[in-house]
Structures are given as structure tokens and as C-alpha cells.
Queue: 3 jobs
Job 1
Amino acid sequence: HRLWGKIIFLSATVAILTGLSEHGYGSSFFTAGDAERKRRLILNFFGVFTSLFSLFVIYLLSNPEYRRLPDEDVVTNESNT
């Protein structure tokens, strides 16, 4: 369950970053001059933010210290059966 969740999340992140780079490559994004400077900055910020966010989420999912403790009800019901 956790593995497939990580795989789906990373696939979505790769799709976002691929879409950003494809949009930049297919348009006049990489032209010289400052005509597209604001758009470049926004897309670059979004790409860096997406990358850092996904790394942070994967770190939290991979670190066992951040896992949720089992609920008391679930532990009690499992020990009674």
C-alpha cells in the first residue's frame, strides 16, 4: 500500500516536471531578452517548489519516526480476538 502510493506520487511529480519542461521547450520560453522573464520565473519557481515538496513528502513517508501510531481501538480489538 505504501509502496504503490509512493510510486503514484512520484509518477505525478515526474508528469508535472515533464509538462513544465515540455511547455518551456515548445513555446518561446527560452528566447533571449526579458519579454518572457516573469513567466520563466513563475515556471522555474513552480518546478523547484514541486521538486522540494515531493522530496519532503517522500522523506516523511520513508522515515519510520513519522508514522502514525496504531489506534487504541484497533490494538484492543485485535488482542481480544
Job 2
Amino acid sequence: MFVPIALLVAGCGDAVMPGEGAQAAVPRRAAAATPVPAASLEAFWTRFRRAALAGDAATIRALSAPTVVQNSTLDDGPAGRIPASRVPAAVATVLGRPDGVDAAGRTHRAILQATPVPKRDAQQPAGSYRFGDLVFTRGKAGWRLTEIYMDE
């Protein structure tokens, strides 16, 4: 079986097509792997975590949806809406509360301090991440805080 040399070389990363004249001396690179987008969950988490632990209201607002849905902690009440101006205070409230499922009874803040990298739950959809009573969703603008579970 005859395979043109250009096809064999192309699979190795550099290829020069025969008969390209002056451009023949310029090697062509195979397409590089797609880099991890800047809006990855890990990049978002680093910014959100730092802002939440520091109480940086401006950054928390910037990393939140324009209106965050407020769900009851028991999912039995109607959902409300938290305007962007009140989201930092709501996040601070959640951080001060116990997680509710942590065996050590730690607060959300203590768990956040111990979680520099988000731990994905395989049961959650790919574009969603839940950390205690905070839910983050990936949309067109990247990852954002979209829901908070709290009764206050």
C-alpha cells in the first residue's frame, strides 16, 4: 500500500506538503490541544473562594448571577429571589452556619477554607456544582453563583 510521505509526516506534528514552492520550507504544526478555558470551575472556584473568605462583596457580586434564587433549606417553601446587592450578605450568612451533613459539624466557612479545589459530585450535571447550601451553574458567561439554600 502506498501512503504519500506528507500524510505520514503530518501525523508526527510537522508537515511540509510537496509542491508548495517558497512555502515548502515553513513547517506546519498539527493543531494543539484545546487549552482549559479561563472560565473552568477550578479557576472560578479559586476566585469565588478567595472573595467569600475575605468578605469581598464586589467580587462576590461579580461572580454571581444578576438575581440568585433563594430556596428553602428543606425544599418545602417557595423559591425567592436575592438581588445582586444582597448576595454578599447572604453568602456571609451561609458561611456562618453549620453544613448540616458534615460529620464534624463544621461551618460552611471551615469547609470552604479546607476546600481549595472543588470536589465534583458525579451525581450532579456537568454544568452544575453544589457546595453545601451554595449552587453554581455554568452558563454563557462562565460559572456563577445561581442558588442559595437559606430560610432567613
Job 3
Amino acid sequence: MVYGYFNNDNSRDLVVLNQDDNSVNILLGKKDGNFPTEITFITGNTPFALKVADLNYDGVPDLAVTNENSQSISVLIGNALGNFESQTQYSVGNDPHALIFDYFNNDTHLDAVVSNYYDSTISMLLGNDDGTFQDQIVQAVGTQPSGLTSGDFNNDSILDAAVTNQGDNTINVLISNGNGTFQVVGTYQIGNGSDSLVSHDFNNDELLDLAVVNFYETTVSILLGNGDGTFQQSVYYQAGPSPNSIISADFNNDNQNDLIVANWQANTVSVLFGDGHGHFLTLAAYDAGNTTSSVIVADFNNDNMLDLAVADYTGETISVLIRWANGSVQPKVQYAAGNQPRSMVTTDFNGDNNTDLIAANLGDNNLMLMLGNGDGTLQGRLTYMIPQASNSLAVGNMKNDNKSILILTNQNNTVEILSNCSYGTFQTTLMFATGRNPSSALLYDFNNDKTLDLLVTNMNDNSVSVLLILGNGTVQNEMKFQTGRKPISLISGDFNSDNKMDLAVTNYDGRNISVLLGNENGTFQPQTMYTSGINPNCVISVDLNNDGILDLVVANQGDNTVSILLGNRNGIFQTQMKYNVGSGPSVVATADFNLDNKMDIAVVNQYSNNIDIMFGDKNMAFLTRQFFPTGISPSIILVDDFNNNEKPDLAVINKLSNNLMIFLNSCP
């Protein structure tokens, strides 16, 4: 994929290859970053690489395409109206991959260099002034050459070339003789599956350096140039899985060259931010569709900030990621977690006034603590082994000492309280028996003795356990209150405005919600049931319509809906309003995400692997929606301010990807 100004309207247009159709599509752009018009042109067989250049010097950009199965390149001359003349094909080697244009023989006519994958050669086609090319000059290079770039690597004012060789994991540096031929003066080892490469000055020494993606190693190789045509040995930086395309640009406006990498297997784009000394410090990842095959940067919406466009190979789509004023793009940062992360909480665990995050990993029987830096990023993992596999995790403060405690519901029918020692370490202090298969827990002072009490849902007993905790840390006898079938989630709130805390419980097998009004002494009235969708999995309480009364929001995993039950001041809820969402909604959260003083809803769709943001309005219609891709099987979501900018951000646990993602709020 490439861009250019093909129809003289001052808006950038896109060109996309269609390998199955042997064609290219021109998408004519508008100033708002949209591409409503599409035109198709025929190429050779299996087009592979694209370049835009003014080949006949008429001020109008032209196109050139390598054709893998035609052993040729196609040249299409543009006419300034967004149209192109029929292709002219030029013979090159076997399975041509990459293509570059530059002035290699100093005659002011653009020349073409093509890498021929199965011939282990490159083809030089010297250009004429009318957009045509001379017959190829063939030169041997390493095994299975793939990527190409050009630059004056030895500072003799003649342009040189560099080629990646996938078959032997090397780069050849080719110094130009000035007549269209090259000398191979250096061969450098790089990573496995070397593919796309760029040349730029990454350490501000006015000498060109090289950056290469290594497809099979999830890395980028950096080779700093010495200015005489030689390069230093490779230094490796982490990218996403299967990186296959790379470009360089100043993406965060700090006057340093950054790297943007398309990750084929991860369906993401990684941005590696340069520090101006040849190092790359921060890795940010942005979702970009399935099997991302190519990435470019340009200002697509004319706001003087670089945006991203990414080609989706299997989804046959183009993703345009518009950058916000704060430098973020579809704002997700991904962190590795343990095996099968099941639950997650946030608070300030180490007393530095930054939001930290802790997750329980079901498959590892451990807790993973990641300390926040206050800028939306998290430090490396600290792990704590726990004796039992944990179903859920909650956080609270029992002693008013600014040290958080953790509450774990365990699969051995216990609930465990871990105290926070030394700001960021934990030890077990209390453990209590519960009902069968405790699924979620809640801390609150339900009997007004100024000590937090503990409530637990018992899925296999169809009950809620109430454990009133005394000031000395002991617990009164467990009390149980009946719920519906398989209670899985609970929330507390004053639903009837009597200053006593009440409960709402989702009954996964019952298609309903239980509401238990509180008596202030730690006991509850018999349940009242309200109809929900199928398999209600999560419930939260919030005032959605600004009437001062708590409402309920429920994720119904079985019928792909969200239910809203508006509250009345007497503790009775109205009949549900249902909204269709993605597949398998598992968790909901609320906040004013777009800062319009109306409450919005975030829904985690476990089976469609995304987040659905439902933006609130005065009519409770939630007509405006926005989806954000996640990892595989997202199961937990939390709202917090991770970068201290007073805007609600999101953290998501992906159970089958074994990672967590931070979505920073980019609302201006």
C-alpha cells in the first residue's frame, strides 16, 4: 500500500494491491480522512510491491508494481484525474519482491531496482525521461533477496542500495559505481526472516543507519552507519509477532526518528520511539485489522499530524488510524500476563500516588503486580504465589492505613484476605470457608461498625455468604441468603435511598437478577427477582439518567445483549431495556468516556474479541458506538486514570492471549 495525490484535490489518496485479482485499487481521499471513491486497474500476475513516483516528469504521480508470477514490473502512467494509462510491463528476474526508485547513475532520470527472490539477484532498470525504462542489468546478491532501500552510505554523493536476504539472514550493502552497477562491499548478519528495511539517521550523526524487521524473531535490527559504506553489528529491539513492514517517521513530534512496524500475526502496528542516540525506548501497539501486511504514515485528515494506514491481507480492508492531538492512535498498549489471567483490580499498592494493577493468573496460581508510572505505562511484573486457584479478586482497605488488602475467592471453597506489606508485597492474614464454588467477592461495612465486611456469591449453593468481620479480624458465623440459580456477580448500592446498603446479584442460569435490600445490621431481606437476558454474567450500579437514583447495567452473555434497569427511589426497578452488542458480552463498566457529562457504557465482548463503547445521550438511546479490538477472549475490564490526566482509561484482561491491555483515553 502507498499513497499519493492522484487527482489534484490536495487530499492524499491510497493505492492497494489485490493479489488474487491481479489489480490495484485507487482510493481517492477526502480532507476528513475518508476514502469514498475506488477505481481498479489491471497489473501483471500476483502483484507484490508498489511504488509511487513521477516517472515522466509531468508533475503527476505514476505507479509501478512488481508482479511475482509474471517476472515483470508494471508501470502505469497517471493523468492527474485519478486515472492511469494501461500498464507497460518490463522483464525482471524470477519472483520479483521489492522495488525502489532513485537516481543511481546521476542522469536526473529515475531508475528502478528490483529484488528477485528466487534468482538471488537484483535487477537495475535505468530510466529514460519519458517514463520508460531500459532493459535490466542483473547482479548477484545473497540468498532470496527481499527488502530494498537506498541512500548515500559512503558519502560520495552517489546513491547506494541495501538488500535483505531472507535465505541467509543477511544484509548486503551495495555501493554504486555511478553507472547503474554496484559493488557488494559488506554483508551483515541480522535476524531470522529479514524482510522490509529502511535507511535513516537514527543517532543524529548525519550518517545513514539501517533498520530491518525480522519476521520469525519478532524483532527489529538496527545497524548504525559509519559513513564509509560500512555498518556496526546489529542491535535488536522487540516488535510484535511476525513483523513484516517497517517505515521511519517522527511520530510523536520530538524531532527524533521513530519506527513504525506492521506485525502480521499480531494484527497490530508497533511504534518504537527513538531517543536520537540510536536507541528505541518505548513500544506502543495499535490494533489494525487481520494479518497486517503493510503500513504507511501520512496526514490523512489535514490536521498537521501523522496518521497511519494499514493494509489487512486476509480481511481485504484498509485501516486508517487517525492520530489525536495528544499523539495517541487507537490507544492500546499491551503487556504480557501469566497463564490464564482470570481477574484484575487497580489501586495504589506502593503509595506513590500512581495507579497500579494486579491480576490473578488461574493457570499459574499466582498474582501479578504491575506498578504504574503515572503516564499510562506499567513497570515489569512482580509475581506472588498463592496456594489455591483463584476465581475472583477484589481490593479494599480494612484498617484505614492507606494500605490495600486483596480478597481472593478460591476454588477450594474459601475466601482469602492478603494484606499489603511494605507497599507492594502481600501476605495471607485471614482465610474463611464459604459456600460451594465462590465466584465473586465484595467488601463493605454492611453493619455500620466501621469495619469492612465480606460478601461472597456461591455459584453451586445458589446463595450469597455474608461474613461480618470484627475489629480484631475474626469473623462472626457465616450467614447465607438465597439467590437465583448460579449467582456469578454482585454489586452493592443504596437502591431505595434509606442509607442502608443493598445488593444486586446476577443469576447466570436463571435469566434474572436478584435484588436484596439491606437491613443495616448485615442481614438482607428476601430477594426480589427481575428479568434479564440469557446468562447474565456481570452487573454494575450507576446513575445513568442523572435522577439521583441508582440504576443497574447487566451483561447478558447468552443472547449478546446489555440490559438496563432504571431504578426507582423505593428500591424497585423498571422492566429492562435491552441493547444488542458484540458476541459473548462478559463484563460491563461505566464512565463518562467522551467527557460530555453523560454516562457511557463499556462492554467486553468475549467471543468477538473487542470492547463496545456505548455513548450515553439524554434519551438513553446509546445510538453512538465505537469498537476497539482486544486480544483473545477478553474477560475483565477496569476503569481508572492510568496517566493522571483526569480522563477515564480502560484496562482489559485477555484470558486466552495471556496478556492485558491499557486503553488510554484520547478524547481531546
